[in-house]
Design goal:
two-stranded parallel ribbon, elongated, six-stranded parallel β-sheet, 12% strand, alpha/beta, 247 residues
Length: 247
């Protein structure tokens, strides 16, 4: 497969985190069972547990994306639906369960194998553009940011733990920005923060609905990272590894 090159007018790159840099699915699947198997009355095996947790995760995260729940609220609702007899859990009790799950989840965080070289290549390009612009050359500065449907402190912790936090790249997280992908508001807000127009930015993401459709809706070029060649796709530049993106 030919490498995919950065479009010439690009002045900013927005990078998703979960599914792109960090193997969230693997960590979540394993953590959900390790946690759930200690709950009173739990009878499901590893695969069934992971599938149930993912389905509940998606359902309540969609409520958060729609503005029905805040970030903490959707976590509590996940726990209340998942834990046997958990519908009446107080906020404090639900938070305690989520803390137990997250303690296991944190230990399982891993970056994908293609992440270190991808980050190094993108940062090298950003630094080279900055140096050329400072020297009065023709190069256009390049801004880079993480754009995530998450909470900034937890995502900062995750990136630092797997060695994927690059100094100088902005963290643009939905919990702090007041909108979630695919809402056009978060893409416009990200571009405003970086001082670029949507057409001058490039989104790199794995989620068709949140990343791909969200970016396309505001006229932003997008690269769909489709790991394992699974799931829905769109008629946009698509790669199966970050190694296929050339800077």
């Amino acid at each position: 497969m030919s490498p995919l090159r950065l479009p010439p007018p690009t002045r900013a790159v927005l990078v998703d985190i979960d599914g792109v840099l960090v193997d969230h699915r693997r960590a979540s699947d394993r953590a959900s069972y390790l946690w759930a198997s200690g709950l009173e009355g739990w009878e499901l095996g590893p695969r069934e547990t992971a599938e149930l947790w993912e389905a509940i995760d998606r359902r309540h995260f969609a409520r958060y994306q729609a503005g029905e729940l805040d970030f903490s609220g959707q976590l509590r609702e996940r726990v209340r639906e998942f834990v046997p007899g958990g519908s009446a859990l107080s906020d404090a009790e639900a938070d305690s369960h989520m803390a137990a799950y997250r303690a296991i989840y944190r230990r399982l965080w891993r970056a994908y194998d293609d992440v270190p070289s991808f980050l190094a290549r993108l940062e090298a390009l950003r630094a080279a553009r900055e140096q050329a612009a400072a020297a009065g050359g023709p190069a256009t500065p390049l801004a880079v940011a993480y754009l995530t449907n998450g909470d900034a402190p937890s995502q900062e912790e995750k990136l630092a733990a797997v060695g994927a936090r690059v100094a100088g790249w902005e963290m643009l997280a939905s919990a702090q920005m007041g909108a979630t992908k695919p809402d056009p508001a978060i893409f416009f807000a990200a571009c405003a923060r970086l001082g670029v127009a949507p057409a001058e930015a490039l989104m790199i993401g794995d989620d068709v609905g949140a990343d791909v459709d969200g970016a396309l809706a505001v006229g932003m070029p997008v690269v769909h990272l489709r790991r394992g060649d699974q799931g829905p796709s769109r008629a946009v530049p698509t790669v199966t590894s970050l190694d296929e993106i050339e800077f």
